[in-house]
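Support case: user asked for a sample of complex input and structure output to validate their parser. Sending the pair below.
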Amino acid sequence: MLTFSDFPREGEGPVYLRLVRYVRAGVASGAVRDGDELPSRRVVSALLGVNPNTVQRAYRTLEEEGLVVSRSGAKSCVSVTPEALAALRLRLQREELEKTVLALRRSGMDRDEALELFGRLWDEAREVEEGVTEE
Amino acid sequence: MLTFSDFPREGEGPVYLRLVRYVRAGVASGAVRDGDELPSRRVVSALLGVNPNTVQRAYRTLEEEGLVVSRSGAKSCVSVTPEALAALRLRLQREELEKTVLALRRSGMDRDEALELFGRLWDEAREVEEGVTEE
DNA sequence: ATGACTGTATTATATAGCTAATACAGTTCG
DNA sequence: CGAACTGTATTAGCTATATAATACAGTCAT
């Protein structure tokens, strides 16, 4: 079960969004799998010293993404069907990338430059994203 | 001189940032050149129906980027050294790409997958590209 | 059924960001 | 000079956002 024990106590941006990213990263990396239970709002809130509603907001956001299932009264759990995950990834990837590719081509960049820059930014993003992506 | 006459009255995000992007785009595209005068804060504010300070904030932001020069009491003008122009273009490209990279990382894609997809979409865009991409 | 847990909803408070009101100061040109 | 422009600084208000306080309702094991 995801324990949040290594969730960074401090970081950029609102707590609830950092929680969302934390769980998303866990799912994306395969560390959290379909059906895994999540600790209750109150447990996480006590661990992090924030209000239960802050955790609730994170869980709710994840639920709207289809990544979490909650039943009133019972524990929440992660929902990751392989098909849904693959479909989601593909959709997001293509949408994002197509717009970007067109913008870069319009600005006169050439293919090699673009690939080089892309790779560099990717690595920079990994550095910024410390804590959540473990490998 | 940049007149702001075709500045869209409605759009996403704060007015001052839309103004900043508007000027940046003009510079990046070459439509606005080094030394070109900018209309005064009050003129633009009257045209758009916002407070002069909102325009001031935009101009100030542009000045911090080194794209505008202001002398207290005199009209402001655009400052575009070749280096600044190159830097601006690179920056716009980076911003575009950064958003995409973050989205892809969030979706759990790994580096090689991402580069591969990027290259493929780039080539697809070239094949499609016979009309002008404009907007 | 009861008690201790779970999720949910409503409302309040604090804070940050954007815009406005207003006053002040410098430049230009007759 | 002085009038009409220019840019600048300070302050206040408004809105959106993030978090908290609190109360309510469902689940589950004993």
